[in-house]
Amino acid sequence: MPAGSEPLIPLQWQPVPGCGEARIYPLIRKVDTVSSNSFLVQTSDAIILIDPGGLPAQAAHLASLIQAIQAERALPLVVMLTHGHVDHYVAALSVPLLVDPCTAMVALQEHGVEVVESADRRMTQAEVLGRELAPMRIDLHLLAASNAEGGGEPVRCRYANGVTVTVVQKPMESGLPQEELILGSGPRIEVYHTPGHSADSCCFQIGGLFFTGDLLLAASPGIAGISGWDQEALIRSLDKVRALLSCGGIEVVCLGHGPMLSVKDGARVLEAVQRDARRLTGIAELDPERARQTAAFAEDCMEQVHELFTVMAGRLYYVSHMMEELEETDIARGLHALIRGDVIDDLLDGFDAFNREYHSGGYVPLNLALKGGQVVGKLQRSFNQDELTQIIDPTLVQRAERLLGDYITMLRGFSPPRGIAVHDLRELLEGCIREHTVRSRSDDDVLASTDDDVAFGRMLLARIGMPPLLADTAATVDLGAGPLSVPVDKERFLDLVTYLLEDLVGGGAATIAVRAGREGEAALVTLLGDGCDEPLTCGGKPHRFLYSLCERAGGNLHFTDREGSRWYTIRFTPV
Amino acid sequence: MEITTAERQAVTIVSPAGRIDTVSAPILEQAINQAIERGTRKILLDFSAVSYISSGGLRVLLATAKKLKNPGDRYGLCCLSADVHKIIRLAGFTSIFSIYPSEGEALAGWQ
Asked: pLDDT value at position A575?
């Protein structure tokens, strides 16, 4: 096995494990929705191209490699599609060599034949990926029911490009519908039907190589739930493929997207995918409308995440700066490890750049939704939540966690959880205002810690890092008398009030008044800031995210900004 | 990012324009460091053309505060947009350096 992290070397010809003279050229791309990996295999009797991909330049490159072989030996070309999704095959249409019946024989599992030949925009995912599509001819229907009708006898066909294929139906030893393609005396291609990601998904085995198409990505957020996706079939396919990998004979797992894996790593990934797949019961179909909603949520979410993470990192720098002033340089240095500010900045800047291209027409909503998923996943690994909540305002960290979690939930096809229950708004507001007014570490706490260096150090950090939000702002609270009970998502309501208070404090309000009461049947909460700076961006309006957060909390948000006074009114109307 | 530097009333006024992000924060830091290396001990950052600041930008602001903390040194920001001002307030930086509504008010306060 070659050195390095991949079991085979991308973009190089090398021997196919366990296959004598056969060789493989893996064309491995970074993971995206534009194009899959492609694999070119040369045997003594044919050239086998697995998935031409979705990029014309990729198909052109593959065609030049094929032509170079054919200039020396007249080997026929067999194009094998792991499934009929545009990112795996549509580029072939731009290169006649890969689709002309005189030069190529194209094979696909029979459930996908009608889809690809009729250019079905929904089932090929062309619709959700915003891709142009034309019909493509399929010559060989893999695992066709008609083959089984022949009593399992080998079926021998000769195609216009000169290739002769013998199809041998095999007993379902693996638990999967299975057949073998014989192309002369070279290695055989084992074909396994592995539906779930799509009805026509197949895995291929050539010698020690196992090509999985998108089987191992099928439970990923933003991929699970696409048209044709089937959870039960997927779990069954994963289960059987896992058994196949453990049987021996397979050395390398070649994925449809991303780096190749050793069989050991492949089995590990497969196990994780199986776990994920089992949790996906009841997810919504990832159609263009859901992709649009998820993309809009990604934008809103990221706008707020941007602010939260910048403030979190800034606050940590502030604590670190103060510790250096106090000559506690070791503590100051240690703080930098808690949040990877440079990584976070890069991720958020990357999303912004992508979002600008999206708005200029460069991408479709699914692209933005998936980009959001990539960024959110990496953000979740870029800060140490537990440690941070000991040093900076825990509501900042918790809100960031909730926001990122809600996004992944939505991308997976579920609705973000809503905990609507009847609560007394006055009680919630009292607790919230107290939290933002009173220091989390009292003077007595600090004095009590002075005998223990470590405890004192931690106390000092928290004292510096967690000044109450309303420490320097005069706040008046008038919550009236008696309970103000309404159905509300408590956590999201408290998050919302905190965001709004931050907006007023950050906007320079000299005084803040919080009021609650009834107006007819409705319950109203008003936050009024006086002496604010000029309005923030978005034409003076608050982030769109705050309106949707208020809706998720069970209320409606109204905003007025006039001559330095800024009002937020949250209205809960009885259903 | 464009950065202009001017001297007025013995104060170096550094005026960045655009977004202070991962790419431009080191450029701003370099411009400030060059001014300090030339001997200036009074620096005013004019943020009237800054629309956004990242955490990397916040780090540069604090690093500069650390370099200009001797008696007689002066360091501050002026003309902040509402968005940038909000981030700086919420990060707690207003106790580390002064923020002025305009360049004139900063210079008047430093004489």
From this structure: 60
CA angle A153, A154, A155 (to 5 degrees): 110
CATH superfamily of A14-278: Ribonuclease Z/Hydroxyacylglutathione hydrolase-like (3.60.15.10)
pLDDT tens readout for residues A359-371: 998 889 999 999 9
Assign domain A418-434+470-575 to its CATH architecture. 2-Layer Sandwich (3.30)
Q: Cβ–Cβ of B55/A349 closer than 8 Å?
A: no
Q: How far is B89 from chain A (nearest CA, A)?
A: 6
Say what the pLDDT of residue A2 is: 45
The tokens of A80 are what? 């094998």
The predicted model gives A463-481 an average pLDDT of 91
Residues on chain B touching A535 (C-beta within 8 angstroms): 82
Confidence (pLDDT) at A148 = 67
Give the angle subtended at the CA of A227 by the CAs of A225 and A232, to the nearest 5°: 55
List the single best residue of A309, A315, A316, A317 to mutate versus B (max B Cβ within 10 A).
A317
pTM, 2 dp: 0.79
**Minimal CA separation from A305 to chain B, in Å:** 12
Question: Contact A342/B89, CB-based, under 8 Å?
Answer: no
Q: How far is B57 from chain A (nearest CA, A)?
A: 9
The C-alpha angle A76, A79, A81, rounded to 5 degrees, equals 165
Domain limits for position B40: 2-110
Among candidates B54, B83, B92 on the partner chain, residue whose Cβ is nearest the Cβ of A345: B54
d(CA A565, CA B108) in angstroms, rounded, equals: 29
- Contacts for A87 with CB less than 8 Å, ≥ 6 apart: A33, A34, A35, A36, A53, A54, A125, A129
Q: Are A304 and B83 in contact (CB under 8 A)?
A: no
ipTM above 0.95, yes or no: no
Q: CB-based contact (8 Å) between A541 and chain B?
A: no
Pairwise CB contact (< 8 Å): A314 & B92: yes
Q: Mean pLDDT throughout A409-416?
A: 82
| CATH number for position B58 | 3.30.750.24
Q: Are A341 and B55 in contact (CB under 8 A)?
A: yes
Give the helix/strand (H/E) hosting A505: helix A490-506
Question: Predicted confidence band at A3 (pLDDT cuts at 50, 70, 90)?
Answer: very low
Strand residue runs (E) in A268-403:
none
How many contacts (CB atoms, under 8 Å) link A and B? 82
Min Cα separation A309/chain B (Å): 8
Q: How far apart are CA A516 and CA A523, in angstroms?
A: 7
